[in-house]
Design goal:
The chain has 9 helices and 8 strands. By secondary structure, the protein is of the alpha/beta class. It has an 8-stranded mixed sheet with strand order 1-2-4-3-5-6-7-8, sandwiched between helices. The radius of gyration is 17 Å and the shape is globular.
């Protein structure tokens, strides 16, 4: 059963904020079926719950899992960012180590009892990797779609290209369909990625603390990152499985959904002890 999106309050950054969330494959009002794996979906840098479209539902149905989709602070229908917000270089760490644990607690998810499966895209994949490194006992497995493990020139160049008026204006118009304050989200996200101080950001050292299996996925045509991103995960985490997809850009779940669903289902079922 797919429940309608709702809001939950969490304490964060000295205030209470509302986060948008949605349960998939659960009973009405319930937090999930303890007999099924729970996949937590973590969106990209300009994404939201709604921008996943129907991919989470497709994957959960195919993999026989429950799902939890969350919009981070400022995104989707969550509490908007205050005007003029500028993020610091630890903005992704704060999402992984502060916001995600608070959201799980508010929603009644005890990962120490039933370890989670995390599926993150882009910035969301970076958050998933950092959460798994900080709380290794809480994560059964992790799918990293087009992750950012360090800052590359092509990532910065692609984000800089979004700043031109002919690109920025239509992009903001599209984002306005999904976010309560799309321009604030775009400005906060793009400003930190383009900041000189952020060029040295990296999570490659901390990934060595990840204790769960990782499926790292990247498109061969990804304009926001090279294959070195997922290959750095393989060097840091033993047993990492790499999936490099042809005819695929930065969003494998949009460009190659069938191949991705098949790969994730095989991987989860194998790790759960079933026949792949």
């Amino acid at each position: 059963m797919t429940q309608a999106p709702a809001l939950v309050d969490i304490p964060w950054d000295g205030q209470r904020i509302a986060l948008e969330y949605q349960w998939l494959g659960t009973e009405a009002g319930g937090a999930g079926d303890d007999s099924k794996p729970l996949i937590v979906f973590l969106h990209e840098g300009l994404g939201s719950l709604a921008m996943w479209k129907d991919f989470p539902q497709q994957l959960c149905a195919a993999a026989h899992c429950c799902g939890l989709v969350i919009s981070r602070p400022g995104y989707g229908q969550s509490t908007p960012l205050p005007a003029g917000t500028r993020w610091s270089c630890d903005f992704l760490e704060r999402q992984a180590l502060e916001v995600l644990p608070a959201a799980l607690a508010a929603l009644g998810v005890d990962a120490s009892v039933q370890p989670l499966w995390l599926l993150g895209h882009s910035d969301g994949a970076s958050i998933a990797l950092m959460y798994a490194a900080a709380f290794p006992a809480n994560v059964a497995g992790l799918v990293a779609l087009a992750p950012h493990c360090f800052v590359e020139d092509q990532t910065v160049a692609s984000i800089a290209a979004l700043q031109t008026p002919e690109v920025r204006s239509p992009l903001l118009a599209r984002l306005a369909r999904y976010h309560r304050a799309s321009e604030r989200v775009f400005d906060a996200w793009s400003s930190i990625w383009l900041a000189a101080a952020f060029r040295s950001w990296s999570i490659t050292d901390r990934m060595r603390r990840i204790g769960c299996p990782v499926l790292a996925v990247q498109g061969l045509d990804d304009e926001y990152g090279s294959l070195e991103q997922i290959r750095s995960i393989a060097r840091a985490v033993a047993g990492t499985r790499l999936l490099e997809l042809a005819a695929c850009g930065h969003s494998p779940h949009r460009d190659q959904p069938q191949a991705l669903v098949a790969a994730v289902c095989s991987w989860i079922n194998h790790k759960e002890g079933d026949t792949p």
